Amino acid sequence: MKKIFLMGRSEAGKTSLTQALKGEKLHYVKTQYTNTDDDTIDSPGEYAESKHFSVGLACFSFEADVVAMVQSADEPFSLFGYGSNAFILRPLIGIITKIDSPYANVPMVRQWMLNAGCERIFLVNNVTGEGIDELRAFLNEDVPKLSLEEAKFRQSLGLNEWDPLPEGVACSCQNTSRNSGV
């Protein structure tokens, strides 16, 4: 399973999401510090809400396979600006929570996430479990393993390690992960 780092404002549903992903009964817990588990990193909302702590988000992202921007569907504004994916060297996904709120504006929150650079967006309801299976399936997909030579080759093309190679381009690396059994 991919290790996911959850970032978003206070009460966006990050901790409830971790409980829902694990199949636990939902119970309110105020996240006072960054909680790490085998497959999740749950950060306090204050990290996203304060310029003094926001650098911590970038640091924690290095410990994860994928970074998730979590926003509730009824948020009146976004904390994350255009091109937020520029400071994160991991795939960035969006997770919209509280999709059943009477004040939900999913299209607006989806647009904020697209503007921020989210590659994929999931709609979830932590209480009913709607969308949790789709997110869990995504997290269960294998993380591609690259050799150092493959990583360097992708970097020389200006690609991230998770970006597909352009059509017609192949890595002629001597010791690729596919050839070495890694």
Query: What spatial form do the alpha-carbon principal axes imply?
Result: globular
Mean pLDDT: 81
Question: End-to-end distance, in Å?
Answer: 17 Å
Radius of gyration over C-alpha positions, nearest whole angstrom: 17 Å
Strand content: 5-15%
Structural class: alpha/beta
Biggest beta-sheet profile: 6 strands, mixed
Output the number of helix runs.
Answer: 7
Q: Low-confidence segments, ≥5 residues, pLDDT <50?
A: 175-182
How many individual β-strands?
6
Q: Topology as H/E string? A: EHEEHHEEHEHHH
Enumerate the strands of the largest sheet in spatial order, edge to edge or round the barrel.
2-3-1-4-5-6
Helix residue percentage:
25-40%
Description:
The protein is an alpha/beta fold and 182 residues long. It has seven helices and six strands, in the order βαββααββαβααα. The chain has a six-stranded mixed sheet, sandwiched between helices. The longest helix has 11 residues. The C terminus is likely disordered.
